[in-house]
TrEMBL record:
Top-rank taxon: Bacteria
KW Transport (keyword) present: yes
Organism: Bradyrhizobium nitroreducens
WD repeat spans: 31-72, 73-103, 114-155, 155-196, 277-318
Keywords, in A-Z order: Electron transport, Heme, Iron, Metal-binding, Repeat, Transport, WD repeat
Name this polypeptide is given: Cytochrome c domain-containing protein
Residue ranges constituting the Cytochrome c domain according to the UniProt record: 331-432
PROSITE patterns xrefs: CYTC, WD_REPEATS_2, WD_REPEATS_REGION
Sample GO molecular function, one term: metal ion binding
């Protein structure tokens, strides 16, 4: 069986399997600087600043007045899956490495690092008064962090990955959603949760100014609930999983971003899709409204951030084309390149390319595992004696990374066909020796 479409870091488990994505007319890109898919984006209350996080392990602070990167934040050893702008002007980034870094603009190192999660962090939320940060993790927990003290409390109960978290507008509760089909409303400071079982695994959640809870699910539906969890409406936003939600500041519009590459703009009160924004046909991982309630930023698998008028559906000016060059265009018709296509989101073939979330494969054969300079490998990999060759790469994909390289951050994947494994290793021989 050919290796399917791969999301190399915090994908949403089985809901993000290989979906057929048709080519669509591209919108234009405004912000380009990440070396991999953009996983998260948020906008400051004054609309002047955006903060994005990427599979390339970096976060970028952007000026929305000039569309220029003002600071690149490098700390995490894996993909940056979640970002937040704090009330005091600082920033928070969280990653697949399970850590949260809190930053002051202009400083090259975090002010503090919050540790405790035992799995990738998928989402962050800031309390209305700015004193608390909530994090949702694939370790099945939500953690509440006191920003002044750095202390934490753990909310346990989810049985699978927790993908989203949001504070109620009054700060008296926090809502979490996960792949276990449950939405949990946690009364603060330490109340037992109200548990609501949903029809489909949940990937995202938002709480509106009036208290209404909005969820994005693997079945492509956006569902609305009262503040105590009673269902009050739903909208079929896409035929494929919804992976991110954004609400306008007045709560009138919801943007539901999907793995299929489109963003549905929903009139929340009417419970209907106003229009659908069409990008380059690649997964859209994140979205955020500017304070005007009409301008929307979207970002996703091609590493670009796009600006839209959400009410008209039109892209807003840009100088950069939204069409991404195919890094494998030179290998059209090559069976091995076709197999490798699932890996290009994380790995480059040449040192000349912008780094992505995984190590470059340039000069792969003959290199000892975990020895590439400049990349942060796990201690488990550093202790191994594997030297990469066509045989060892084939073995990696025959039995899977977790069995062949225990302790790896690489997602579990196998190539069942010996012919496809051989095509892949032959392709790497040609492509990584240049």
């Amino acid at each position: 069986m050919r290796l399917g479409f791969l999301i190399c870091t915090a994908s949403f488990a089985a809901s993000l399997a290989a979906w057929p994505i048709a080519p669509l007319s591209p919108a234009r890109a405004q912000l380009a600087g990440h070396g991999g898919p953009v996983r998260a984006i948020t906008i400051s209350n004054d609309g002047k600043t955006a903060l994005s996080g990427s599979f390339d392990t970096a976060a970028i602070r952007w000026s929305l007045a000039t569309d220029a990167a003002e600071q690149v934040l490098r700390f995490h050893s894996d993909a940056v899956n979640a970002v937040a702008l704090l009330n005091d002007g600082r920033m928070a980034t969280a990653g697949a490495d399970g850590r949260i870094a809190v930053w002051t603009a202009g400083r090259q190192e975090p002010d503090q690092v919050l540790e405790g999660h035992r799995g990738p962090i998928a989402a962050l939320a800031v309390s209305p008064d700015g004193s608390m940060l909530a994090s949702a993790s694939w370790d099945h927990t939500v953690r509440l962090w006191s920003l002044p003290e750095g202390t934490q409390s753990v909310l346990e109960g989810h049985s699978q990955n927790v993908n989203g978290v949001a504070f109620a507008a009054d700060g008296r509760s926090v809502v979490s959603v996960g792949y276990d089909l449950t939405l949990r409303i946690w009364s603060l400071p330490a109340g037992a949760p109200e548990v609501v079982t949903m029809p489909s695994p949940l990937n995202a959640v938002a709480v509106e100014p009036d208290g209404e809870i909005v969820t994005g699910a693997a079945d492509g539906k956006v569902r609305m609930l009262t503040s105590d969890g009673a269902p009050i409406g739903e909208v079929q936003a896409a035929p494929t999983p919804i992976v991110a939600l954004a609400s306008s500041r007045d709560g009138a519009l919801i943007a539901a971003a999907g793995i299929g590459g489109t963003v549905a703009i929903i009139d929340r009160k009417a419970r209907s899709v106003l229009r659908t924004l069409v990008g380059p046909g690649l997964p859209v991982w994140s979205a955020a409204f500017l304070p005007d309630g009409e301008t929307l930023l979207t970002a996703g698998a091609d590493g670009k951030i796009r600006r839209w008028n959400a009410r008209t559906g039109n892209p807003i000016g840009a100088s950069l084309s939204g069409t991404t060059a195919d890094p494998l265009a030179a290998y059209a018709g090559d069976q091995g390149a076709d197999v490798f296509r699932a890996c290009v989101a994380c790995h480059t073939l040449s040192q000349r390319e912008v780094p992505r979330a995984g190590p470059s494969l340039a000069g792969l054969y003959g290199r000892k595992i975990a020895s590439l300079p400049g990349y942060q490998f796990s201690d488990a990999l550093k202790r191994m004696d594997i030297v990469w060759s066509p045989e060892t790469v084939a073995k990696l994909f025959e039995i899977g990374p977790s069995a062949y390289t225990p302790g790896t951050k690489m997602p579990e994947q196998r190539i069942g066909s010996a012919e496809d494994r051989r095509a892949l290793t032959d392709f790497l021989t040609r492509a990584t020796s240049k």
